[in-house]
Amino acid sequence: MATELEYDRASELKAFDETKDGVKGLVDASITTIPRIFHHDFDKDSTYSSSSTTKLVVPSIDLVDIHLDPTKRKAVVEKIREASETWGFFQVVNHGIEVSVLDEMKNGVIRFFEQDSEVKRELYSRDVTKPLVYNSNIDLYSSPAASWRDTFHCFMAPHSPKPEDLPSVCRDIMLEYSKQVMKLGSVLFELLSEALGLNPNYLNDIGCNEGLAVVYHYYPSCPQPELTLGAIKHTDNDFLTVLLQDHIGGLQLLRENNWVDVSPIPGALIISIGDLLQLITNDKFKSVEHRVVSNYVGPRISVASLFSTSLQPATKLYGPIKELVSEDNPPKYRETTVRDYVEFCMTRNSYGTSHLPYFKT
To answer: Who contacts 279 (Cβ-Cβ below 8 Å, separation ≥6)?
Structure first.
């Protein structure tokens, strides 16, 4: 009881936030025990503690020659359809982005987080409307427990940021990488359209590739990884996510009530179906819960490129695609704008569960 009284969570959160040094600041201070604000209550959710299943392997799809060989393209479309319907995740190789670009993007994230604290503190904010925001845990004050990671993010499309608003240590690679991811995204939406039996341009024409928010994560080494997580169980509130991760690993997805490691493949990118794609495909494609576990080793780097206009003003309504519904398969969701869906996800504290059920018809 005394311990409970001594623990003032609100004060500890505020003290941590006001350092503006994030989790990296704790590691730099050579802590050996992690603060209680990072302790996760694994007992409340049995799926948190389920063991990883090593027998299952996330599908890997080779995109080589898909523009030149119709037979290969047809086979790739079929693999994407199956993965999107059953896994909600797949990895792509030969995707058109050079390994040197991927490596430089990861190095750019490291340069940002390992620059002088004084420089980073200038960018530290909880105002998500700023061109670029650096902080630790965007949901620090509302989540049940803090996650062991620091983040900076910015919107790269439809409105590109002013170059002077981007950090000089990684400005060039941020612009180059996002440009190449936008090109890849358009290709992926073509393949996904074909996998749905639609015109290849369908998903691009309705604006699925219009917006891009890029989130740069830094997961420092953790002295007590069994007590915390790098990211709690969640689904992505976008159409599609293209994820670059380093060699360390830690990403897991939930499949058949078991956590499956999304093991790093050199040069590969991870593709995950977002909530909005599940909504417009009327549950044909699945947005799957995933998380990031903490590691003794680190830092782990990842870059999540989310295809979504997010909180930017929006009037376009998205609902189940008419060509995919019928009398036997009626619409399962009501229409929503991207902004309304994202705002709902950010303001509703239903951690560890999908927000899609709230949009059911």
So the answer is: 318, 319, 320, 333, 336, 341, 356, 359
Task: Check if the beta carbon of residue 24 is closer than 8 Å to that of residue 150.
Answer: yes
Cα separation of 274 and 342, whole Å?
12
Query: What would the pLDDT profile of 320-341 be if each residue is shown by its tens digit?
Result: 999 999 999 999 999 999 999 9
* Rounded Cα gap, residues 196 and 278, in angstroms: 12
Contact 359, 335 (CB under 8 A): no
pLDDT tens digits, residue range 81-116?
999 999 999 999 999 999 999 999 999 999 999 999
Tell me the backbone φ, ψ of residue 204, rounded to 5 degrees. Answer: -70, -40
Q: Tokens in use for 330?
A: 């009626």
Give residue for tokens 């409307």. 129
Side-chain-side CA neighbours of 133 within 13 Å: the count stands at: 14
Rounded to whole angstroms, the Cα distance separating 219 from 151 reads 9
Confidence at residue 230, expressed as pLDDT on a 0 to 100 scale: 97
Cα separation of 71 and 57, whole Å? 25
281 near 275, Cβ under 8 Å?
A: no
Inter-residue contact 345 to 355 (CB < 8 Å):
yes
Spatial distance between the Cα atoms of 221 and 160, rounded to a whole number of angstroms: 33
Contact between 181 and 216 under an 8 Å Cβ cutoff? The reply is no
Calculate helix-pair angle for 171-195, 99-113, nearest 10 degrees: 130
